[in-house]
């Protein structure tokens, strides 16, 4: 009798264990099973054991893939404008220094100092923009010889007329938005310089 009860008890335990294992298998299949849930494709996650599937997640629930920013490609016209602007800006700074040192007229000296301050700032902005766009700007040494206040101011009027047309043209017709904005902002400075140069030049003989 005792042996019979022991056998029955063992069968009962085995049955209970089998039931537990069956329930666990069903639960796991429901949690990690393949197929569609809620009318959508199940999203998966890579694990060391393989792909792990998240129940109820549709394909549309996936976060968009991050894309790395790419450097903007400049047109040949934009690059040419930047190179010419850099060359002209450096010239304005150097000639401004000479005017401040060698000018005889107080207004000419004042104008020269303004050229150094304003164009140095504009040149720094352009260098930063060129670095962002991957454009290498040449640093050329400016050569020239100071002759007179009048000759300098005549040159400044002509240069700023030419520069204003180029900068306004780039601001209107350029293709890169950053270069266009810098050209537009700087053209306002050039316009002020042109007016100042014309006024100063008209006082000289």
Structure, described:
It contains five helices and four strands; from the N terminus they run H-E-E-E-E-H-H-H-H. The protein is mainly α. The protein is 67% helix and 7% strand. It has a two-stranded antiparallel ribbon with strand order 1-2. The protein has a two-stranded antiparallel ribbon with strand order 3-4. The model is unreliable at 1-71 (pLDDT under 50).
> How can the largest sheet be summarized?
2 strands, antiparallel
* Regions with little confidence, pLDDT below 50 for 5+ residues: 1-71
Task: Specify the overall morphology.
Answer: elongated
Structural class: mainly alpha
Strand order of the largest sheet: 1-2
**Helix content class:** 55-70%
Number of helices: 5
Radius of gyration: 38 Å
Number of strands: 4
Strand proportion, as a percent range, falls in 5-15%
Short summary:
The protein is mainly alpha-helical and 205 residues long. It contains five helices and four strands.
Write the layout of secondary structure elements.
Blueprint: H1 2-32, E1 36-37, E2 40-41, E3 43-47, E4 50-54, H2 76-102, H3 106-133, H4 149-173, H5 177-202
Antiparallel strand pairs: 1-2, 3-4
């Amino acid at each position: 009798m005792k042996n019979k009860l022991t056998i029955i008890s063992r069968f009962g335990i085995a049955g209970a264990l089998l039931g537990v294992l069956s329930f666990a298998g069903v639960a796991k299949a429901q949690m990690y099973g393949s197929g569609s849930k809620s009318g959508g494709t199940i999203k998966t996650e890579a694990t060391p054991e393989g792909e792990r599937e998240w129940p109820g997640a549709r394909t549309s629930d996936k976060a968009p893939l991050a894309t790395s920013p790419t450097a903007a490609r400049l047109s040949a016209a934009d690059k040419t404008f930047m190179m010419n602007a850099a060359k002209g800006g450096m010239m304005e700074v150097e000639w401004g220094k000479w005017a401040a040192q060698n000018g005889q007229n107080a207004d000419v000296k004042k104008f020269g100092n303004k050229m150094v301050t304003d164009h140095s700032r504009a040149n720094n902005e352009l260098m930063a923009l060129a670095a962002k766009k991957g454009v290498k700007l040449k640093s050329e040494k400016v050569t020239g010889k100071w002759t007179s206040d009048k000759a300098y101011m005549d040159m400044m009027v002509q240069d700023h007329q030419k520069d204003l047309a180029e900068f306004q043209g780039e601001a209107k017709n350029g293709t890169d938005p950053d270069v266009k904005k810098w050209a537009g902002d700087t053209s306002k400075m050039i316009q002020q310089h042109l007016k100042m140069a014309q006024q100063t030049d008209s006082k000289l003989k």
